[in-house]
């Protein structure tokens, strides 16, 4: 566990070390080195079979009113979406699907999309029968799909639904880019995907006849994966860049598509291999970069399984393991596949902290550290426990069950414990609950949220029971019009009362409605999209149970726009800059940002509309490149933003440099550039950096840092940084009688940052490494720098808020990186 606080004081004053706690999921309890897991070689063929199992199929018929429905679109989604069309008999088949859990739905003109409530589980070589019935008609949503230049895109897949995860009506755009879909009335989510373009999405109000989706041309990163030394091509390697992935072919070639403009450092993983490009690359809008070479270095594969105490495997996709290497930014994660198996294709050597979870179960914390060397790690088992259960019913005030309600619980300390959908009879069962006090609450459309959660005592082996009673509220409806009486669509309306609040958007007729509001008085107003309350006074309304109150809202006409262009230092248009806009406050400083950044078009242009207020701050930046700020900018202005020339920070890191991370940070501009140096010989180059004052560090260690002032276009290629050694401290905590103290907290503060600021202040940041003593009183603390180390201990087994007391101050140093401090005595116990 690492805890941090920044302390600011006058320059030249004594640095003050103050510690604040930031919990990273659990109390870190590194096991002694001899308890770590080191296992024999895994057969690579078995790993390949696990990663590439035979596919399965989902098949059935689509009907309506008992009759076959031809031409329906049936889709299944895990991480990607696969679709098929029903034939004249209503039959469909989704074949060659990888084993896993799928959300399945069907859609057809005139019907709402429909599918099973629970994901469909598909095993290898299995054929799951699934018949789908379409019955409910919806309202029409129409629109167009085009590129950023306004050219229609034919053949785009458009999906319309109430949320990103719910079944969505699936349509295909025509040759003129138009599409037609059906959806429930109200707020809807519209997404489009097409070859050669980045996926796009927008919100709308159904019914709607003017939804416009503008798609940005994709960028592409392409190259070859080879083995280091031999340069032999590597097939079936997974290459990734910021979440987008591709697989290398038989010749080792890969192409990552749908990449947004920005800076990337593609990496590749194969069975027993890992590598990265030597330097990051920046790709512009619509640009294709070829010739990237990723050298794979031999590393270990890790294979294991997550199982319940009784040996039952964690279901596919329900569990995950996360490995975090001590003293490094390297981390790896994977989900369970068949039989609870976890496979990580390529993990670099090191000692890793382990987190393992399985939905509906409790992890066993802490898990022993995982030591990965040159050999594969096989047959590692991470166990989870059933935990406690909370069962009950959710009903209305007449004791009638509320179907499809969501029941959630909060665990001790205010941690969210999870949620579950209630059955048709209102019953529910929450599993994997942490023993102790839990608070259970419900949510259902048309009902008020539980004002007071139901408190229960959860215990292993005996179900805690809870009955949740929910009350219906009142409603609020109205219209939004401009000064001329014309309806205003897609405006956010908020209602704020003393005990409740709600918000929605107006539809194409300017109408809006909110339900399930608590009775009482409300202020109803129009909100601008970036959160600033509209200037006009709110309208008063009173909500009563079982009734709908009506209000009329008028939008002020005082709004405007700002349009401009972004060019580089040579005057050429910048077509891959993201422009942000924020209202300038009374002190001349930018306030809350307005919406999402806008990407410049091919001519470098950008436009912000529906702006209300005085003057604005504009900031244009190329991701991983230059940036420029213009302020203040008035409504109606047409600014020309000129990006300055960028510079380079380059050099070498010396010491143990096979796998380190270099970072350059300019705190005054909130700018950080970070790159992992994997087998580069310590050589690094951070390119296209804006001018600024940078602190450059290795692996976040302040002892390795240097400060560089970089001018516009300056190249500093002579930098030299030294990796500093870090030590592991092992010991044993005993009481005055010499008996081990079990479950005590050990704390060791470590300087994280000490920096003089340009404004004359000093900032000092400490982290606190923690451990809990084991059954023999032993503990282990990692990543300690050379010099004096203050070790403190406290009894948290009986008092979670107990303080800690200094027990030893060993001095770390020398060639031995593992320091044994022996028995440390805590007097008084």
What is the molecular shape? globular
Give a quick account of the main beta sheet: strands, pairing sense, barrel closure: 7 strands, mixed
How would you write the strand order of the largest sheet?
20-19-23-24-26-18-21
Q: Please count the beta strands (DSSP E, at least 2 residues each).
A: 72
Give the number of helices: 1
What structural class do the secondary elements suggest? mainly beta
Helical residue percent band: under 10%
Mean pLDDT: 85
Q: Point out poorly predicted stretches.
A: 1-42, 530-534
**Alpha-carbon Rg, integer:** 30 Å
Query: What percent strand?
Result: over 45%
Cα distance, first to last residue? 25 Å
How would you summarize the topology of this molecule?
Layout lengths: L3 E7 L33 H8 L4 E9 L2 E2 L4 E5 L3 E5 L5 E7 L2 E8 L12 E3 L4 E3 L2 E2 L5 E9 L9 E5 L7 E4 L5 E6 L2 E8 L6 E7 L1 E8 L3 E9 L10 E4 L2 E4 L5 E7 L2 E3 L2 E4 L2 E4 L4 E3 L4 E11 L1 E9 L10 E7 L5 E5 L5 E7 L2 E9 L3 E2 L6 E3 L4 E9 L2 E9 L9 E6 L3 E7 L5 E7 L2 E8 L10 E5 L5 E7 L3 E8 L10 E5 L4 E5 L5 E7 L2 E8 L11 E5 L4 E7 L5 E8 L10 E7 L5 E4 L4 E2 L5 E7 L3 E7 L5 E8 L5 E3 L4 E8 L4 E8 L4 E8 L4 E7 L2 E7 L2 E10 L4 E8 L4 E9 L9 E12 L4 E12 L5 E7 L2 E2 L2 E4 L10 E4 L2 E2 L5 E9 L3
Parallel strand pairs: 2-9, 2-10, 11-17, 18-26, 27-34, 35-41, 42-48, 49-56, 57-63, 64-72
Antiparallel strand pairs: 1-66, 2-3, 2-6, 4-5, 4-7, 7-8, 11-14, 12-13, 12-15, 15-16, 18-21, 19-20, 19-23, 22-25, 23-24, 24-26, 27-30, 28-29, 28-31, 31-33, 32-34, 35-38, 36-37, 36-39, 39-40, 42-45, 43-44, 43-46, 46-47, 49-53, 50-51, 50-52, 50-54, 54-55, 57-60, 58-59, 58-61, 61-62, 64-67, 65-66, ...
């Amino acid at each position: 566990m690492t805890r941090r606080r920044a302390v600011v004081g006058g320059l030249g004053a004594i640095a003050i070390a103050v510690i604040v706690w930031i919990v990273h999921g659990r109390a870190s309890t590194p096991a002694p080195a001899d308890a770590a897991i080191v296992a024999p070689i895994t057969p690579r063929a078995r790993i390949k079979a696990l990663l590439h199992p035979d596919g399965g199929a989902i098949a059935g018929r689509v009907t309506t009113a008992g009759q076959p429905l031809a031409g329906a679109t049936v889709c299944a989604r895990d991480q990607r979406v696969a679709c098929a069309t029903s034939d004249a008999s209503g039959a469909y088949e989704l074949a060659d699907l990888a084993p896993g859990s799928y959300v399945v739905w069907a859609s057809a003109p005139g019907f709402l999309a429909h599918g099973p409530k629970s994901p469909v589980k598909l095993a290898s070589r299995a054929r799951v029968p699934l018949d789908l019935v379409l019955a409910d008609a919806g309202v029409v949503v129409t629109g167009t799909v085009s590129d950023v230049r306004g050219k229609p895109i034919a053949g785009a897949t458009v999906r319309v639904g109430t949320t990103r995860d719910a079944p969505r009506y699936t349509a295909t755009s025509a040759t003129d880019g138009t599409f037609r879909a059906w959806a429930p009335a109200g707020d809807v989510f519209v997404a489009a995907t097409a070859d050669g373009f980045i996926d796009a999405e927008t919100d709308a109000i159904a019914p709607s006849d003017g939804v416009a989706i503008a798609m940005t041309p994709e960028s592409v990163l392409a190259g070859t994966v080879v083995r280091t030394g031999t340069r032999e091509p590597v097939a079936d390697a997974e290459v990734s860049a910021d979440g987008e992935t591709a697989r290398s072919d038989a010749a080792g070639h890969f192409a990552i598509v749908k990449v947004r403009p920005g800076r990337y450092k593609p990496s590749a993983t194969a069975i027993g291999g890992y590598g990265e490009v030597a330097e990051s690359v920046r790709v512009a809008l619509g640009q294709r970069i070829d010739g990237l070479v990723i050298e794979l270095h031999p590393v270990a594969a890790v294979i294991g399984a997550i199982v319940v105490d009784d040996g039952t495997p964690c279901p596919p996709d329900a569990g995950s393991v996360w490995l975090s290497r001590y003293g490094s930014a390297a981390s790896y994660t994977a989900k369970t596949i068949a039989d609870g198996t976890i496979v990580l294709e390529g993990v670099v050597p090191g000692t890793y902290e382990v987190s393992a979870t399985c939905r509906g179960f409790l992890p066993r914390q802490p898990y022993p550290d995982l030591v990965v060397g040159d050999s594969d790690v096989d047959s590692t088992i991470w166990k989870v426990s059933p935990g406690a259960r909370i069962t009950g019913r959710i009903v209305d005030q007449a004791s009638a069950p509320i179907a499809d309600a969501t029941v959630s619980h909060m665990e001790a300390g205010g941690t969210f414990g999870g949620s579950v959908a209630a059955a048709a009879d209102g019953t529910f069962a929450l599993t994997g609950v942490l023993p102790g006090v839990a608070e259970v609450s419900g949510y259902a459309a048309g009902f008020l949220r539980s004002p007071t959660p139901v408190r229960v005592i959860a215990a292993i082996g005996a179900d805690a029971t809870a009955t949740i009673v929910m009350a219906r509220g009142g409603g609020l409806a109205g219209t939004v019009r401009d000064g001329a009486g014309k309806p205003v669509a897609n405006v956010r309306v908020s209602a704020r009362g003393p005990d409740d609040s709600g918000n929605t958007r107006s539809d194409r007729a300017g109408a809006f409605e909110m339900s399930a509001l608590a009775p009482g008085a409300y202020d109803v107003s129009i909100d601008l999209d970036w959160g600033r309350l509209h200037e006009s006074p709110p309208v008063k309304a009173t909500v009563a149970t079982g009734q709908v109150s009506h209000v009329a809202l008028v939008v002020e006409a005082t709004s405007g726009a700002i349009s401009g262009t972004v060019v580089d230092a040579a005057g050429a248009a910048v077509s891959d800059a993201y422009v942000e806009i924020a209202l300038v406050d009374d002190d001349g400083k930018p306030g809350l940002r307005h919406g999402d950044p806008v990407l410049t078009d091919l001519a470098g242009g950008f436009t912000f509309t529906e702006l209300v207020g005085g003057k604005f701050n504009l900031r244009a930046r190329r991701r991983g490149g230059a940036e420029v700020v213009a302020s203040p900018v008035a409504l109606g202005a047409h600014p020309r933003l000129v990006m300055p020339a960028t510079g380079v920070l380059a050099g070498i890191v010396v010491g143990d440099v096979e796998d380190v991370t270099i970072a350059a940070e300019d705190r005054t501009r909130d700018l950080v550039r970070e790159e992992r140096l994997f087998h580069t010989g310590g050589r690094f180059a951070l390119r296209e950096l804006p001018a600024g004052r940078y602190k450059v560090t290795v692996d976040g260690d302040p002892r390795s840092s240097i400060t560089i002032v970089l001018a516009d276009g300056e190249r500093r290629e002579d930098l030299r940084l030294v990796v500093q050694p870090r030590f592991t401290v092992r010991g044993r905590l005993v009481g005055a009688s010499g008996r081990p103290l079990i479950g005590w907290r050990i704390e060791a503060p470590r300087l994280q940052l000490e920096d003089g600021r340009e404004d004359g202040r000093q900032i000092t940041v400490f982290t606190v490494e923690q451990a809990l003593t084991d059954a023999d009183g032993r503990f282990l603390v990692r990543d300690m720098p050379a010099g004096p180390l203050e070790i403190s201990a406290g009894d948290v087994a009986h008092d979670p808020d107990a303080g800690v007391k200094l027990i030893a101050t060993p001095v770390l140093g020398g060639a031995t990186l593992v320091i044994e401090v022996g028995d440390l005595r805590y007097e008084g116990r």
